[in-house]
Amino acid sequence: MKFNKTICGGAAALAFAVSGAAEAYTLITCNGNNIRWSGTSATMRASDIGFPSGSSWRSALGNSISLVNQNPSAFDYGIVYGDTSVGFNNGQNEIWWSNGFGAPAIANWWMNCNTGRFTEVDIRFDNTVAYTTSNSKSVLWPYGGGSRPFRTTAIHELGHGVGLSHTANTYSVMGQDWDHIHANGSTARAYFGEDASSGAVALYGGNPGNVQDLGVSQWRRTGASGEYSTHDRTRIRTSGGGWVSSSTVNGEPRYNVNKGQQYLVEFSYENNGESYQTTEVGYFISTNDYISTGDRRIGGRNGMGLGRNTVFTFQAPVTIPADLVSGQTYWLGVIIDEDSTLSEVTETNNRTYISIRVN
Ligand SMILES: [Zn+2]
Q: How far lies 216's CA from each of 5, 27, 180, 352, in Å?
């Protein structure tokens, strides 16, 4: 058996494929074999000390497992709590808190390189990092808060335990995890995402349960730092091509737009499910950051085709209504699968926004 590990948050050099490649995920390999579990499940065991009964940590870890299990592959994690003897290479997949390993979290694994199979995966979180189990935007790094979201990091490490390595060339939780996140209203939600889902299906095949999911995000890939894709918020530009100026309000960008003018508004559209979808997208104006079908519709697109491959970050034309109030802040919303024709494993990622101030 061979031991290996990945230092998450470190900066290792790795060549990455050019953008436009059909797939972006990278799989863990050894001796030319992709590494995966022999079956389609693995059971993780959480430390009783770090994830005690009734704690928000246990709840957030369980939620992270559930979020990974929404992936469209045949693979699912199980989770057992109350492990009192965590350790390396003991035949059990365990999760615990520690520090001094040079990263906010780390996955270590043991594998048989000849058969291409994991034999054990252990995950540790650094107990000196300012993690939070909160889903409230205001406390989270990506929205100007002071804490690293626990769930995005947990999903990234669990992604290694599926058999995924780091992603550099598309928006992915296997890149920089903490700003791979979805928000609508005051709540943010961590998720596995299109790229990791594609890698999981490549390893384990599709889920017999017909798992479909479309999503739209206010985050995009900006580049790469070593093995990791880097991310930032989606933007607005003019029809002429210039990026619109913004200021930071409550930790989020707010774009300065003119009434009656057409702009190109950017979002990242994701297919996190098993099958190719052709979908409808609507654009809305809202007086708050919670987007719903009750908001004012200002445009839309029919026939957007989305395969499950790399994330489709796209700028769509919309016109700011001429009757909005000057000096007021609004939210430009987007809804994917606007007519709710697709049955999805989750609907919570179908709506998001960009803040605007109308001149
Ligand atoms: Zn990693």
A: 32, 25, 12, 7
